[in-house]
Amino acid sequence: MNIVSVLERELGKEAVVGPGDERLEDYGRDESPLPEFYPPACAVLCESTEQVAAVLRICLEQNTPVTPRGAGSGMVGGALPVRGGVVLSTEKMQRIKEIDPADLVAVVEPGVITGKFQEAVEAAGVFYPPDPASLEYCSIGGNASTNAGGPRAFKYGVTRDYVLGLEVALMGGEVLRCGRRTAKGVTSYDLVAGFVGTEGTFGVITEMCVKLVPKPAAAATILGVFTDLAKAGLAIEALLRSGVRPSVLEIADKFSIDAVRPKARYRFPANAGAIVLCEVDGEADMMEMMMERIGLAFDELGAIDVLAASEPAERSKVWEARRLISGALKEAYRIKVNEDICVPRGKIVEMIARCDRIAAETGIPIAVFGHAGDGNLHTNLLSNEDPMDPAVREKLWHAAGQIFTHAVALGGTLSGEHGIGLTKKPYVTLEQSPQLIEWQHRWKAMWDPSGLLNPGKRLPERQKRCSE
Ligand SMILES: Cc1cc2nc3c(=O)[nH]c(=O)nc-3n(C[C@H](O)[C@H](O)[C@H](O)COP(=O)(O)OP(=O)(O)OC[C@H]3O[C@@H](n4cnc5c(N)ncnc54)[C@H](O)[C@@H]3O)c2cc1C
């Protein structure tokens, strides 16, 4: 009996999206810039931990690869079934089981959409800070599996900082509960930290206990417009040295500004060469003072314009230009390879200058924007050539390789938030030693000795034994 029939028999036909069902195509793609479609044998839309465990048991028994999937918004191909087999989707596991404002914790199933979870939490008077830009459609289980970050990571940290406890189904069907629901706890080895960010290669998250924080009473947003990046870089340095702790600190280069000019309601000055967007949150009576202080600092450092707002609707207008960048670039170019290197904060301006040089040398336009507070830059390689042409893709990935090489040389890392998945796997050796890669293979083998769980992701093939 083939795998699809076994799954249909054990989980019911309604749980399985099989061959001939037009929905199946969706499970062979994600938001990565890869043009290929990776057809799975089927997708299983699990509704409970028991079903997830059953799929993992059957896949092991049938020696079939299985790829976990949340909402499919990943940008590195992590949820693509590159070796075929089964896609295990958590999209139907959407229950928010508990929000406890007194204990400051919530318990959720992995398929809950992050933005919906934030709304529910805020309605209960508390706050869940991780805010990937994809929050309207990504899942919280996907966020934990990629250790997603977002603009607020500068003040509040990334998803890992909020995951207290996990229920995980392992290859073969065993279900493990690890972590805690208390603020502190050191009784066991930190297996939770081990599962977060492993992109579905160690196990499938079936339930999460996450930390909440008190909801800030108010926030203010300040946009500084500068003629060039060097001035924007100085403004960021000065701001951080002044002791201000923004919740958000974003930067964008001239290329990004020019892409949003036609779309944004804000009329950028003709000589705008860089923007710094800063957000602070806290007590309502502090906001006026913070806006003035940051606005003045931007002025003193040569800003050609400053916008500031504390009312939600006005703040949203100040955010607009930054928010529109990614979509504007996507609309203007047929190919957009959005990387997410992270460099030490002091190297941001140098890294952007190096991207400009790579763009000049390769002829590939590169727009850079991102989370300056964390040194996390989105370097967008753009092209209007044919996405299916291997030569075009080779050229783009070669330029991406140069960006990674420079980021590592500056003390940085390949990925600040999107993960490694499939697309960045060939570049891991730029950053990690054969010894480190070997130890990760051993770790992976402990959780998944069969190698059937999300195969072909994250780790480059074994190079040599660490003792050699
Ligand atoms: C427009 C846009 C903006 C984005 N902005 C950000 C951003 O600001 N910050 C950021 O970090 N990312 C961002 N992303 C990337 C993406 O949204 C995140 O990586 C997100 O965390 C993926 O969640 P998902 O539910 O879509 O996961 P998927 O894409 O379905 O899967 C991602 C990985 O997690 C694994 N996985 C999913 N669910 C589980 C589970 N329950 N158990 C085990 N493994 C699982 C998959 O196997 C895969 O390896 C953006 C993407 C887009 C398209």
Core attributes:
Uridine Diphospho-n-acetylenolpyruvylglucosamine Reductase, domain 2; 5-stranded antiparallel sheet; 468 residues; single chain; 4 domains; Uridine Diphospho-n-acetylenolpyruvylglucosamine Reductase, domain 3; 7-stranded antiparallel sheet; alpha+beta; binds flavin-adenine dinucleotide; Alpha-Beta Plaits; globular
Compact summary:
The protein is an alpha+beta fold.
Query: Treating each run of at least 4 consecutive H or I residues as one helix, how many helices?
Result: 14
CATH level 3 topology of the largest domain: Uridine Diphospho-n-acetylenolpyruvylglucosamine Reductase, domain 3
Let me know the number of strands.
18
Outline the low-pLDDT stretches. Answer: none
Please state the average pLDDT score.
95
Would you tell me the structural class of the helices and strands? alpha+beta
Q: Classify the beta-strand content into a percent band.
A: 15-25%
Helix content: 25-40%
Count of domains: 4
| Hetero compounds | flavin-adenine dinucleotide
